Fold these 2 entries.
Entry 1:
Amino acid sequence: MQITFDYSNMMAEQVGTAHGITAAELVELQEVTRTIHAQIMARRERGELPFFDLPFDAAIVAEMQQLAAHVRSTFDTLVVLGIGGSALGTTAVYSALGAAQKGSSGATGSSRLIVLDNVDPDGFTARLAQCDPARTCFAVISKSGSTVETNCQFLVARKWVEDAVGSRFREHFIMVTDPETGLLRDLVRREGYRSCSIPPGVGGRFSVFTAVGLLPLACAGVDIAALLKGAADFAPRVCHDELESNPAYLNAALQFLAYNKGLTISVMMPYSDRLRDLGDWFRQLWAESLGKRFGTDGRELYVGPTPVNALGATDQHSQVQLYVEGPFDKVVTFIAVDDFAHEQVIPAYEAFPEASYLAGHTMGELLRTEQQATAAALTKHRRPNCTLHVDRVTPESVGALIYLFEVQTLFAGALFGVDPLDQPGVEEGKLLTYALMGRSGYEERRRDHEASLGRRHARVLKC
């Protein structure tokens, strides 16, 4: 496994001093880096940052593989019921590594994996229609056990299964939740559902290396041992205090400095279909961790880079025009794959001489060239960009990328002066949803909301 971070096009000598980063600015951050690193490692020693140590837990691999073997031998399909961090990491890794297993099933094969991460009734109904309830298992994932969307999904799925198999419906559900507390844990105790625990202190967006991600991925045939090994092997490269040789700290610092130069939009653009959903996972990681009103010192900051997803080469034809000639408010991070698992040689066609220059090249070569060309075009127009080069998309390299981005996000939180592990802005909407759906204990919040509607001057256009 080899990952290379090329940040040449972030620097002022390439894109100018208005938005580019100077060597002096990085030097100035070195002492800050050492201070932050010491604080992070102290918190890790105190057990406050358990996600750091997840890749080194051999017991979780054996546990998940054993449970996955049972699922694969009993069911054709595993459906994940979850939202946000309970779904995005699994989807990202499965898209990268599980393509060969899609659609296969059987005791020695792998279960088909479906991730349902919304409560759109049309979409939910359509996906259930693809499944046989007698041969479908559900992983119900919510650390708190009170996630309204997940509980809604579970209630509908439970009735669907019970209608088909009767009293044996509990055998079709695995609860993945807090080991001690919460509504799902209470349900496990009362009803005897099979369950897995999410370690205390691990938030949803940092949970892909727990049962949240490892169970469904193991069921789908992904090599979870290699996934964790890739993260563990990469850990020493991102767990030291030398800024310019630590890719996680360095990219966080570059993004932070760029943000302070007005580049408040952070574009993640993998040139790989298999890594496309990694951008979705990173979008939540970056947005929910760094978008904060208050700093850790209590001051109002209203900070946070806005993450945007793009896919190369697809979005060269939909977004790059804006990136090259639009406002100077974006920094682009490319992910480039050096060696694709499958290659297509472009054949010659005598009746189409205008395309003869492509003959003998490969599709992978074309995609790599397009990434280089896009980076060059951005640089020419003084738009900062950087590239993470991955030698191949493997369990090890995907595990390393996830670990890199998690550490990068934690370090970025310290630079921005915010807590990257909380999400207070999400809670208000959750609580109001409880109130409007009639959950006991939220009556006053509902009354306050209805009163505010009464004071509002409505402007509604019926078309």
Entry 2:
Amino acid sequence: MGGHAVVVGSGVFGVTTALALSARGWSVSLTDPGPVPHPQAASTDISKVVRMAYGADEELTALAERAREGWIEWNAEWMRGGGRALYHETGVLMLSRERLARDGFEYESLAVLRRRGHHPERLDAAALARRFPDWAEAGYTDGFFDAHGGYAESGEVVARLVDQARRRGVDVRDHRAVDGILTNGARVVGVTLAGGERLAGDAVVAAAGVWTEALLGGGTAVRATGHPVFHLRPSDPAPFGADRFPTFTADIARTGFYGFPLHRTGVVKVANHSAGRVLAPDAPRAVTEDETARMRRFVRETFPGLADAEVVSTRLCLYADTPDGDFWIGRDPARPGLTVATGGSGHAFKFAPVLGNIVADAVEGVANPYTARFGVPPRDRTDGAEAARHRGPA
């Protein structure tokens, strides 16, 4: 198809879309109001979970399988180019304080993974104590370990992808905010940058995360919710290496807590995947005393070695939430020339290797297996979250 595309936002949706469209013969401009990776973007930070477990949702499990293959291919490409691996296959430990039961996140995830030919290791309390002894006193009685998963160094990944985009001829315009959408009648024909410059495009992709609503003048049903993230420095790092302490979820649908092994910077990241709290996109992003106290209680009960760990830094990760928890990827039926790619809802980053082509298909009007599910609202489902997400407070 080809032409010139303007992609607004250089987070995981935007940069992967720019790369995919460039590979299909489009010339591409990629804009962002700040540095890239943007420090306030949801795709920033030191790590994001890469897992295939999606409860009973076989469709997303299948997409996550493809994404994991993509992470392995990206690693090989980056290492051939003299860089280092940014995806770390530590495995993912998914635990419950109660015996796994039908309709529960861990039970349904395990069933789907087995049905699809995977072989996760089922762990009762005794097996957990043998396999991962640092969890022995934590009170988790059931769960499983899936060796096919881990985490990606998210901020570094975005930086690497932006660099690849530049080398492939994408016009990357960082520190260039978009003030508005240019139209010719109903058709979107470009954007206006801060300072008045006009940037024309045969297609415009709004990949602005929590700022999508403001960019498009409302009507997207995307809202910003804040979720606390903590970087803890253990006094003894030895127990938290990936061989003993893999990427984990801790009864996540009931508690929201998940975390990572020791990062190369010497910190253990613990975060909460919950309902969060609704915020304006540009509101101050401070983790509250209550959120910190809840994290401390969780850590004290679960990992005594982290109970008194120094909190090196905190951040409030803003999810771009859709009512049904699914991504919004599709052409805007009211505005020809505009494709929206947003709504990460706290679980998009793991799909980075496949997201760009799904968005590029939408730009080009090519149907794929996810066109109906991720297409623009209205949509029938309003359950509010994917299966791992805790419905309560952070």
